[in-house]
Write a structure and sequence with these properties.
- The chain has helices spanning about 15-25, 70-75, 85-90, 135-140, 145-160, 165-175, 175-190, 200-205, 210-220, 245-260, 305-310, 315-325, 410-420, 455-460, 480-495, and strands at about 5-10, 30-35, 50, 55, 80, 110-115, 120, 125-130, 240, 265, 270-275, 280-285, 290-295, 300, 325-335, 360, 370-375, 390-400, 430-445, 465-470.
- It is an alpha/beta fold.
- It has 3 domains: about 5-50 and about 245-325 and about 445-495, FAD/NAD(P)-binding domain (3-Layer(bba) Sandwich); about 135-225, no CATH class; about 325-445, Polyamine Oxidase, Chain A, domain 2, CATH 3.90.660.20.
- The strands form 5 sheets. Strands 8-7-16-17-18-15-19 form a 7-stranded mixed beta sheet.
- The longest helix is centred in the C-terminal third of the chain and has 17 residues, at about 480-495.
- It is globular and about 65 Å long.
- The structure holds flavin-adenine dinucleotide.
- Flavin-adenine dinucleotide binds near residues 13, 15, 44 and 302.
- Flavin-adenine dinucleotide (FAD) binds next to α1, β11 and α15.
């Protein structure tokens, strides 16, 4: 290709890359976005994987944002439901919908409004998540542990630890007893290391304003529903979910980009940049076994920094930091079944009276899976006949090439099926079909060489026309809306230059 002085090359068609391309086009800039994407579809970690009429996200993705601009983009491509969905009708739920919107039974480009139910299974008991200070919690914990939990919480209120790591951060907000019961071993399962090794930055970023105090206040305020309070993201009661999964949104955004002059080159993997002293000149990528090259004005990366650095000329110590950045890899084992045993203990009506949670956190001592995901509660349109069948997944965290990661599909399906039986979700005899998805670098992690990441950023800044965006692009554990904001900000910076 020849040099085009109005081109922005974006590596990665995840939410951040799509949002950047969208913004350049929407604001009628002079820049043509070209996205290089490794996969054959948009959406990145937020994509939906389909198997005929069934669909699962790489871990269910709630659409929730306080950012009006991001909400307006979602609304541009998908319309909020204004009539009951099939499960609402089946259960005769009495729900009020917005006046403006679309009927999900007549249209496909619809965002469903879903109830946010999550819980924790611990010691064979079910706790509401986020943890609530109520009678159920106290009686489940036992009165002695509850008493100690309150004491340790009060202690944490008055004697704050210096927050050197995530463990200090959590104990300061929940007290040592609740930390030991609910967070200590679960954190290790998710991140593969002790909370005392992880930076407290993750806590500040993800649960910065959440504490027991806030959850109590929140429960109190919810008694006064006529007053509108803005809730912490971790405490929301409802969220949006596209009728046909998150990919419905990303496919529409990708169509918009291509129909308006942008390009998305799928099945293409970043190889390297060519550059002079201060600027990137071109990008090389591999497509169908061939190396292709594009020259452009700006280059933006949303791919993991440890992959990007392989294609950048950088000093040895910078490369070492970037190459050893920690990540957590993710495995989703899904089962399509004709029965599901966990029953509903709430007043919210559900199909066949199954439990209403989207996610159940598995905090049993011996459990290897981290979370149970019940797709029927995300969208009844993604599970075939929603009255008869269940699409249930177990989420596992692993490190590339550890025992779990390297397990054959058959073996990990067997392991997951046994866990489903053990925790009384369904019996292996109920399984109609199953699948395994492995996703590398799903969680950017906050320990080890992460503490030196600033040197990598400083070095890469020397390329004046290179930007990093998104979750793995900036090594920040962010949500879809934050990733999109990141892309949009860089689009604006490019347009303003
Ligand atoms: C289990 C799980 C649950 C989550 N739940 C939620 C939720 O409920 N709500 C929410 O808002 N967010 C959630 N998230 C976060 C959400 O997935 C991310 O915030 C979002 O996908 C980040 O978008 P991104 O564009 O920054 O990166 P990504 O989605 O990672 O996109 C990067 C893109 O780059 C491509 N790529 C990678 N390497 C290369 C290469 N070498 N060459 C070319 N292309 C490449 C990838 O294929 C991908 O398409 C969840 C994440 C996980 C893992």
């Amino acid at each position: 290709m020849t040099r085009d002085n109005k081109t922005v090359v974006i590596i990665g068609a995840g939410p951040s890359g799509l949002a950047l391309a969208y913004e350049l086009i929407k604001k009628k800039s002079n820049y043509v976005p070209i996205i290089i994407e490794k996969l054959d579809c948009p959406g990145g970690l937020s994509r939906t994987v389909y198997d005929g009429e069934l669909g699962v996200d790489i871990g269910g993705h709630r659409l929730f944002t306080k950012n009006q601009y991001i909400q307006s983009i979602w609304n541009e491509f998908l319309t909020v439901q204004n009539a009951p969905s099939i499960d609402d009708i089946y259960c005769e739920r009495n729900i009020k919908y917005p006046i403006l919107g679309k009927d999900p039974n007549k249209y496909d480009d619809v965002m469903l409004i879903r109830k946010r139910y999550s819980s924790i299974i611990h010691n064979n008991m079910s706790f509401q998540y986020p943890i609530k200070l109520n009678l159920d919690t106290f009686s489940n914990l036992g009165y002695k542990t509850s008493f100690l939990a309150v004491l340790s919480y009060v202690k944490a209120l008055f004697f704050k630890r210096k927050e050197k790591n995530l463990e200090d951060f959590m104990i300061n907000r929940f007290g040592k007893v609740l930390y030991d019961v609910f967070f200590k071993s679960y954190t290790k399962k998710v991140w593969g290391v002790d909370a005392s090794v992880l930076s407290s930055e993750w806590g500040h970023q993800r649960i910065r304003k959440l504490s027991l105090f806030k959850t109590v206040i929140n429960a109190f305020l919810s008694c006064f529903k006529f007053l509108k309070f803005q809730k912490e993201t971790s405490l929301i009661d409802e969220f949006y979910y596209p009728k046909y999964g998150c990919s419905a949104l990303w496919n529409k955004m990708a169509d918009y980009i291509v129909q308006n002059g942008g390009q998305i080159i799928y099945n293409s993997e970043f190889l390297e940049f060519s550059h002079n002293q201060n600027n990137i000149l071109s990008i090389k990528y591999k497509k169908s076994g061939k190396t292709e090259e594009i020259f452009a004005n700006y280059f933006v990366s949303s791919i993991p920094i440890s992959d990007l650095i392989k294609g950048v000329d950088a000093p040895y110590d910078i490369k070492q930091i970037a190459l050893t950045l920690p990540y957590r890899d993710y495995i989703l084992v899904s089962f399509y079944t004709n029965d599901f045993y966990l029953k509903n203990k709430t007043e919210f009506k559900t199909v066949n009276n199954i439990t209403p949670e989207c996610w159940i956190y598995l905090q049993e001592k011996d459990a290897i899976a981290s979370r149970i995901q019940i797709m029927n509660n995300w969208s009844p349109y993604l599970v075939g006949d929603f009255r008869k069948y269940y699409l249930v997944s177990l989420e596992y965290f692993a490190n590339e090439h550890d025992e779990l990661w390297d397990m054959s599909d058959d073996k990990i399906k067997k392991l997951a099926a046994n866990e489903c039986q053990k925790y009384n979700l369904f019996s292996p005899a109920n399984i109609i079909k199953s699948s395994v998805i492995r996703e590398k670098k799903a969680y950017p992690s906050y320990f080890g060489s992460y503490f030196n990441i600033k040197y990598v950023f400083e070095y890469l800044k020397k390329y004046k026309n290179l930007f990093l965006i998104g979750r793995n692009g900036t090594h920040q554990y962010n949500n879809m809306d934050e990733a999109m904001v990141c892309g949009i900000n860089i689009a604006r910076e490019i347009m303003n230059r």
